[in-house]
Amino acid sequence: MARAIILLLFFSHLSFADNTLLITYKGSGSSITTKQIGSNNATYILCGSPTSNGSGTFPGTSYVAHTCSNATWNSTVDGTGNTVRMYTVWSNHTNSRNTITIDGNDNFAYIDQDEDDNVSSITQTGNDNHAEQLGTGDDNVYAITQTGNNKYAKILAFGDDSDITITQSGTGAHNAYVWNNNYADNNSATITQSGSGNKDADIFFYADADNSDVDLTQSGNGAHTANMKFYTDDYNVNVTQQGSTNQSYAATFNCTSSCTKTITITQQ
Q1: Would you say the pTM of this structure is higher than 0.90?
Q2: pLDDT by residue (tens digit) across 62-74?
Q3: What is the pLDDT of residue 172?
């Protein structure tokens, strides 16, 4: 109860009729749960401190880092405008669990997950979708699941020993995009998209990102494409695209010596 009162003191804004909720707080070990059912929605949650003069503009453009480890953030929306976002301001944000679930309409979600040992999940079910995740630490787990309508996803990973999963599903449009930064080692990415038509992919693992594993499956009713670039030393890449025709595939594998590569491509 004391923790709930402290969080209320840091609420930046509340608007119940049109579902706006902005939460800015600082400190470790916090649990925040938000739920917004219908209408224009929004959410935003940020852990950080205002600048020294007490100012701060949301979301996070004038905030500075604060220790916010061991946090649990859960956001459930439901329908209409949506958005959400969850932010940490760099440093001391370890061992946290961030979950976004949305149900329908215009969507977009986004999790900024700084530092190590964090787990984040975005699930959206219908309509325009989007998602995104940013991770700058080690031993993190990133998941995006979007089920129907336009989709798109995007994960930027800057640390080591992390697992990336994007699953999207039917009926068409999809996309997905994974950026694994220089020196971000021992990461794995599993991207599954499914039918009917469209898809895409675009997966980039940059220089000295060693020991990488990528498993891309796209699946049925045509279109596909892929576009993958690996500037790494050791990697395993498995690409399966499947039917009904269209497909395509372009890849750059830029390691030419002192490296171990396993590449499996199936199109059908």
Answers
A1: no
A2: 666 677 889 999 9
A3: 79
Q: Which of 234, 242, 252 shows the shortest CA–CA distance to 216?
A: 242
Domain count, the chain: 2
Tell me what percent of the chain is helix, strand and coil, each rounded to the nearest 5: 5, 35, 60
pLDDT band at 57 (very low <50, low <70, confident <90, very high): low
d(CA 212, CA 201): 17
Contact 182, 205 (CB under 8 A): no
Tens-digit pLDDT profile for residues 200-243: 888 888 877 788 888 888 777 777 777 888 887 778 888 887 78
Instruction: Say if CB 214 and CB 232 are below 8 A apart.
Output: no
Return the H-helix or E-strand segment holding 265.
Answer: strand 260-266
Instruction: Give me the residue label for tokens 């490296």.
Output: 259
Domain boundary pick from 126, 150, 174: 150
60 HSE (CA, 13 A, CB side) = 16
Cα–Cα dist 239/197, whole Å: 17
How many other CB atoms are found less than 10 A from the CB of residue 11?
A: 12
Q: Return the closest-CA partner of residue 233 out of 211, 252, 262.
A: 211
Residue 140 sits in the same domain as residue 158 = no
Q: SS3 for 78?
A: coil
Mean of all residue pLDDT scores within the chain: 80
Shared domain check, 67 and 175: no
Residue that wins the pLDDT comparison between 240 and 120: 120
**Quick one: CA torsion of 191, 193, 199, 201, rounded to 10 degrees?**
0
Q: Are 191 and 200 in contact (CB under 8 A)?
A: no
**Domain termination site, one of 125, 150, 175:** 150
What is the structure's pLDDT at 58?
A: 62
